[in-house]
Amino acid sequence: MTPSARLSAAIDLLSAMEETPQRPADALANAFFRERRYIGGGDRRAISARVWRILRHWRRLQWWIERVDMHPTPRLLALAMMAVEPLGRENPDDLFTGERYAPLGLTGPERRLYDQLRDREMTHPDMPRAVALEVPDWLLPRLERTFGEGLEAELAAMEGEATLDLRVNLLKSDRPTARAALEAEGIAAQDTTLSPWGLRLAGRQPVTSCAAFRSGMVEIQDEGSQLVVAAVGARPGMRVLDYCAGAAGKTLGMAMTMENRGHIVACDVSEPRLEGAVRRLRRAGVHNAERHLLVSGDRWARRRSGSFDRVLVDAPCTGTGTWRRNPDARLRLREQDLLELTAKQADIMDRAAALVRPGGRMVYATCSVLREENGDQITAFLARNPAFSLVTPDGVHDDLPPGLAQAGQVCLTPRQHHTDGFFAAIMQRDS
Ligand SMILES: C[S@@+](CC[C@H](N)C(=O)[O-])C[C@H]1O[C@@H](n2cnc3c(N)ncnc32)[C@H](O)[C@@H]1O
């Protein structure tokens, strides 16, 4: 594709996103490229890179465009992005040519917009704080409460690009062997500093097509997510429950720390998600896991009341910790979503707690940074459930680096830990 055809496709993809604003951008991009099989891998990456840059600067670009009384269409957002932060030496006259497969030539007002914005700082002192920080207005006070004075720096880190991390599957390999196998296939990786099983890749690399991945030696998993697995401390012979298992990302990690011994149950209310676990469990060589679909009125949970050594609640959440990967998610998030999610989280935690045996532990985790979904939930849960308490630092498991858990809670952020934002609270059932 020519550079201008790539730009045209990026504008089309942005238009598709604008038409269905509640649909996640990555799902839309997948569908967009599936319908256009003629777009090759290199072109796809270039088109996505442009779109994701625009998504990361969305509110500020809109502000600039509206300031000159224009409507922020996908075409203008692409033009404004080019003016403020060009990719290399791109010149709009070389791209907006009107030729075949290229966007139409610039109109007079568009050219004036470009000239006004050219080489400006993206952030302007007159911008409202929520616009400058690229967050919804309603969310700003909650983020201020969470981060206090560190807010700007934390959000700046959440605007960056996410790393690509792998978890080495100790059921099949060890870290030096897996690293060497990847390197033999041209994929450079470094040991992660916090997770004992992690490898961090240098940039985006085609991992899923390499033999180390296909043979189950490594699994794609953010370092933060690996640390949630570490917080559970599932050990050989235990009975472990992954209550919100989805496609078993953390089940796989816990089966690994259990050395395939004992029993682990992956539950979820979503059948398609649990279905997605089958292939992954097989590839990883996990033999001690079963899947269970939770349905209302199910006796399954009642019969297993008080029987698990470890219960992980990887709760549905706003995903504010994963904004590096899904910058569009912050634009889609509504206050109502947060209210519904916090109610659901409390309900799930209470149900899951009934399954923990006396002396056992429940780990509540989210990939959110918001206090409402994290510390506040724990405070309220402990008040409702006096049989539970946060584990003391010396009771935290060895797989976690020393000092990472503070008073039984782990709070990870992209700025401080170079992981996705994650929260985990480790609670013990005393009686
Ligand atoms: C954060 S995701 C889990 C991700 C997964 N643990 C992993 O590591 O890949 C949250 C999951 O909770 C599930 N869920 C939503 N409501 C639930 C409920 N009431 N009980 C159990 N699971 C629920 C969702 O279907 C979703 O798969």
From TrEMBL:
Report the InterPro entries cross-referenced here. MeTrfase_RsmB-F_NOP2_cat, MeTrfase_RsmB-F_NOP2_dom, RCMT, RsmB-like_ferredoxin, RsmB/NOL1/NOP2-like_CS, SAM-dependent_MTases_sf
Q: Which residues bind S-adenosyl-L-methionine?
A: 268, 298, 314
Annotated membrane-spanning segments are: none
Q: Return the SUPFAM superfamilies for the record.
A: S-adenosyl-L-methionine-dependent methyltransferases
Key word Transferase present: yes
* Pfam family name, one: RsmF-B_ferredox
List the keywords (alphabetical).
Methyltransferase, RNA-binding, S-adenosyl-L-methionine, Transferase
A single BP term in Gene Ontology: RNA methylation
Q: Does the keyword Ribosomal protein apply?
A: no
The chain positions of domain SAM-dependent MTase RsmB/NOP-type read: 154-430
The record's family statement is: Belongs to the class I-like SAM-binding methyltransferase superfamily. RsmB/NOP family.
Question: This chain belongs to which protein, by name?
Answer: rRNA cytosine-C5-methylase
Species in which this protein is naturally found: Komagataeibacter intermedius AF2
